[in-house]
Amino acid sequence: MSLDGGAIHGPKEVSWCGDGAAGASLLPGNAAAADDRLPALVRRYLDQALAAGSPSVICGVIQGRRTYVEGAGAAVGRSAPDGRTVFQLGSITKTLTATALARAVGAGETRLDAPLALPARFRIPRKGNRRITLAHLATHTSGLPSLPPNLLAEADPYDPYAHYTLDDLATGLRGTELSTEPGKVNAYSNLGFGLLGQALAFDDVDSMLRHRVAAPLGMVDTTTALRPDMASRKAVGHMEGEVVPDWHDHVLSAAGTSMYSTANDMVRFLRSQLRPERSPLRDAIELTQRPRFTVDQNLRLGLGWHLSALPGRRTMTWHNGGTGGFSTCAAFIRESGTAVVMMVNTFSQETETAARPVDALTFRLLGELGTA
Asked: Which EC number applies (predicted)?
């Protein structure tokens, strides 16, 4: 099982070029996503998610001024999830952490080019003459490995981060080597984003994310602390058809290892991404979406966000995520005023040739919405 939260480096298996089912939906004049057909369109994608093996699925859509949220479940006699059903969010959390970084930069508390700094017992690895900066961490260009070298030795495979302490992190960093000089190569790193969170709010990351990002945007159920009222409406995670526990983490939680959220909260977050000028976090949101590193001709990186080039000089901004029992994906196109979030309560993993179902369905649905 991957512990990276489901990250991928481009929308695999999704056609944006005009051939195949997804491509046909992008032809000018397509009316598939007209307002009176939006519920039927969303239900079609919900059915596909269930057919791919998800016990339940929730989808939130923004199309211009309209917001639509609907869920579906495979089990007969059980209620379908709704906009308040709680899922683990996974690595989409990285975009919240990046927003917190952008807020700190805007407030003059730090700089994007500031070197990573932690208490003295945490040795920051180096390679060459360049030090790891906060921007390197937020764009996965630090050279850090995906995970600390000592994370898995005593890990519970069903809750792999729960045992890890700050003392363990200090030990792990002493044995960590960079694969490349910082700023040179993109390599996805949960460790890097975990360290970014600790650099912004040492040993208080979860509170920092709530106060600096979730609360100002009205995301009342986006937290690592599962309140009793949230527990009563939480979806149960699955892996290969079996019930599995949630993930828990205090040290690297800024990477998205233990965050909870709902479709309603994620729709609020995505609406703020589409219209930053209407958000209390306008400047920070704009900064996170600004390209900072080019991976290839089709993919650039903002702070936390992946920026994929689309036909017509448009950009799909996105991130996906996952924990042991949940898979998620969120994407939006500012030029068309459209956004989609999809959350399922089962673990899934991409292959060499295909994206995870939740990712492929999110991108395809967004493609249909963006042409109406």
From this structure: 3.1.1.103
Cβ-count burial of 106 within 10 angstroms (0-12 exposed, 13-18 middle, 19+ buried)?
A: middle
In tens, the pLDDT along 283-334 reads 999 999 999 999 999 999 999 999 999 999 999 999 999 999 999 999 999 9
Tokens at residue 76, please? 């007969």
- Give the whole-angstrom CA distance, residue 159 versus residue 295: 32
Give the helix/strand (H/E) hosting 339. Answer: strand 338-344
**If you search the block for the tokens 């290892």, which residue do you land on?**
257
Between helix 263-274 and helix 282-289 the angle, nearest 10°, is 80
Q: What is the pLDDT of residues 179-236, one digit of tens each?
A: 999 999 999 999 999 999 999 999 999 999 999 999 999 999 999 999 999 999 999 9
Q: How far is CA 176 from CA 68, 158, 164, in A?
A: 45, 24, 16
Domains and CATH numbers, the chain: 20-369 (3.40.710.10)
Q: Name the CA radius of gyration of the chain, rounded.
A: 19
- The 8-class DSSP code of residue 166 comes to H
Say what the pTM is: 0.91
